[in-house]
Write a structure and sequence with these properties.
The chain is mainly alpha-helical. The protein has one domain (22-92, 101-191): Vanadium-containing Chloroperoxidase, domain 2, CATH 1.10.606. Helices cover 79% and strands 0% of the residues. It has nine helices and no strands. The protein has helices at 2-18, 22-34, 39-51, 54-82, 87-90, 109-124, 126-145, 151-170, 172-191. α6 runs parallel beside α8. The protein is elongated and about 65 Å long. The model has no long low-confidence stretch (mean pLDDT 90).
Length: 192
């Protein structure tokens, strides 16, 4: 375990310092901001729900469930349970290009919610999902570059987010039944 943590620190410093260049210094904070609060994903899911055909709407629904599940299970619960300090608290020379986050580091919430949403979309709508996975990878990488996550945080977030997407999509039929039941309850209450 010590070896993994050491490697995580080495790779953090390499990405945060050695890949430094003016273009990335401008681009990566913007890419990182896209993942803030899942807003870019909510926008993409909204577009899929409005303009997508049946497959697009299904991708939007499953992507939304995966996003919400990832947020609560990984970004809220697991992050508090692991309580890993951010790298800038360990490496005082870390280059910080965004505002200091006040939560813990593992797993990356940006990476987990991005990959949960993008993978769920990909499993239902390959063309849009492929672009979404590229965006998710950029957002995850940006979190290390801007100095707020170790590479292990974003890799774990990506893997765990993808696992959540796989679980959500595997339960598609059960989720459809829940939606039908909710619609019936709402319809019966509106008729009374």
């Amino acid at each position: 375990m010590t070896w993994l943590l050491t490697q995580d620190g080495i790779w953090f410093n390499y990405i945060n310092h050695n890949l430094q260049n003016p273009f990335f210094d401008l681009l990566m904070p913007l890419v990182s901001a896209l993942g803030e609060g899942g807003l870019v994903w909510l926008f993409i899911l909204f577009l899929l729900a409005i303009f997508g055909n049946g497959t697009g709407r299904k991708a939007a629904f499953l992507g939304t469930v995966a996003l919400v599940a990832s947020f609560f299970l990984l970004d809220e619960a697991l992050k508090a349970l692991v309580a890993r300090p951010r790298p800038f608290l360990h490496f005082t020379d870390a280059r910080l290009l965004v505002a200091l986050p006040h939560s813990f580091s593992f797993p990356s919430g940006h990476a987990s919610t991005s990959f949960a949403t993008a993978a769920a979309i990909f499993l239902k709508h390959k063309r849009v999902g492929g672009c979404a996975l590229v965006l998710a990878a950029l957002i995850a990488f940006s979190r290390v570059y801007v100095g707020v996550h170790y590479p292990g945080d974003v890799l774990a977030g990506a893997v765990l987010g993808t696992v959540i997407a796989l679980l959500v999509v595997s339960q598609e039929k059960a989720l459809d039944k829940i939606v039908v039941r909710v619609k019936l309850i709402v319809r019966s209450k509106s008729e009374n």
